[in-house]
Amino acid sequence: MNILVTGGAGYIGSHCCAQLIAAGHRPFILDNFSNAKLAVVDHIERVAGTRPRWLRGDVRDAALVTALLRDEGIEAVIHFVGLKAVGESVQQPLAYYDNNVQGSLVLLQAMRETGVRTLVFSSSATVYSASDRMPLREDAPTSATSPYGRSKLMVEHVLADLAAADPAMSLTALRYFNPVGAHPSGLLGEDPEGPLNNLMPFLAQVAVGRRNQLAVFGNDYPTPDGTGVRDYIHVLDLADGHLAALNHAHGRPGLHVFNLGSGQGHSVLALIAAFGQACGRELPYTIAPRRAGDLAAYWADPAKAERMLGWRVRRSLAEMCADTWHWQSTHPNGYSS
Ligand code: NAD
Ligand code: UDP
Predict the structure, then answer these.
(1) Which ligand 2 atom is at minimum distance from the Cα of 271?
(2) Which domains does the chain have, with CATH numbers?
(3) Please, what is the angle between helix 317-330 and helix 268-279, to 10°?
(4) Catalytic annotation, residues
(5) Are the C-beta atoms of residues 228 and 268 closer than 8 Å to each other?
(6) Which of 26, 165, 188, 191 is the most exposed place for a label (fewest CB within 10 A)?
(7) Which of 26, 5, 14 is nearest to 331 (CA)?
């Protein structure tokens, strides 16, 4: 299939493009490179053996997106575009609603105009309400506590309304848990700019010597070792989940919602230990206060995706750390090195 991949030069999108090509699809990347390097396209080509078509452009540019969908014979869209830092979204809510919500509206409108009926959307586990009932199933209550989370939930509501109004559309929201890891070739990985928010990239930078030590945000949570527990998922398993979702969407109009997670929780200390094993030395850390807004523990119930998509994770926490370390140690400064 010809597949438009918005945000396809980003962390998850680039891995997904490599897997799409490997499966015989033809991804077309639309990315404004606000959070990606041009070199990513070369790296996808080296990994996959085929250069994806690509265009620098903004998903909010209605004329551009409509022309692309029409002229490139696009049959389905995977929509990765989004700003994704929770803290930044509190400071800059309008930028988040503009990019994440308005960008999705422009894309959906262009799809309607051009008769492209299949969309796979990057949602997030952050749409679930705080709860002690684990694991989280797709029918658990939703609510959001940040503009970022609300932007994802708003788009899910738009998809539900559109699926009800237009019985020809097949709209899938994939709720990612914590994507980590890198392509085992060492050629694709996460290359964050600006302040680091997430645990795995921070650990990788400590391991490679770009940071002195990790601050563990709280060790007094009601979890087995007191540190936060999350459901980490290898980015290639996540990418494979998109392929499974596309196959499922074919000929199945309506709204489809799936968790993409492993179903297993790991603590911050467990991740530090696993990364230490991968890089061959103990990583230094200190205990710091809790981070505002963090929950103690949550993980996915991935049973629906396994049942309906025939998909489940195949890669372990040790592989997530080993592949991150391979990428980080061979590219200490990301795509610039
Ligand atoms: P990313 O920032 O690496 O990728 C997003 C890509 O979109 C970047 O390449 C960026 O340049 C591009 N982009 C941003 N705004 C654009 C615009 N208006 N027009 C065209 N291109 C634009 O992020 P990622 O980690 O790959 O995440 C992809 C999606 O998954 C996002 O929607 C994010 O909210 C969602 N998600 C990510 C995580 C995570 O932990 N990484 C977790 C849950 C959900
Ligand atoms: N975390 C931490 N130190 C950091 C970054 C994160 O202890 O420098 C913890 C955080 O409190 C949470 C877990 O690691 O328990 C995962 O955090 P991340 O920001 O990666 O993902 P999210 O909060 O979105 O689940």
Answers:
(1) 14
(2) 2-180+232-262+299-313 (3.40.50.720)
(3) 50
(4) 148
(5) yes
(6) 165
(7) 14
Residue in the structure block whose two tokens are 């559109």: 162
- Does the C-beta of 38 come closer than 6 Å to ligand 2? no
pLDDT tens digits, one per residue of 149-159 = 999 999 999 99
Q: Check pocket membership of 285 for ligand 2, CB cut-off 6 A.
A: no
- Which tokens hold the place of 118? 């299949």
- Do 51 and 45 meet the contact criterion of CB atoms below 8 Å apart? yes
Query: Looking at ligand 2, which residue's alpha carbon is closest to its atom 20?
Result: 198
Q: Which atom of ligand 2 is nearest to the CA of 214?
A: 8
Count of CB atoms within 10 A of residue 318's CB? Answer: 12
Q: Is residue 195 over pLDDT 90?
A: no
CA distances from 187 to 47, 153, 224, 302, 330 (A): 7, 33, 36, 29, 9
Predicted confidence at residue 133, as pLDDT, reads 93
* Residue 194 binned pLDDT confidence (cut-offs 50, 70, 90): confident
Closest of 30, 14, 10, 5 to residue 119, by C-alpha: 5
Name the token pair of 95: 């930028």
* Ligand index nearest the alpha carbon of residue 299: 2
User: What are 307-326's pLDDT values in tens digits?
Assistant: 999 999 999 999 999 999 99
* 91 contact partners, CB below 8 Å, separation of at least 6: none
- Whether the link from the prior residue into 332 is cis, omega within 30° of 0, is no
Which residues are CB-neighbours of 295 under 8 A, at least 6 positions away? 130, 228
Determine how β-strand 266-267 pairs with β-strand 229-230: antiparallel
Three-point CA angle 38, 320, 13, nearest 5° = 30
Residue to mutate, 88, 199, 229, ligand 2, most ligand atoms under 8 Å from C-beta: 199
Radius of gyration of the CA atoms of the chain, in A: 19
Q: Is the CB of 145 under 6 A from ligand 2?
A: no
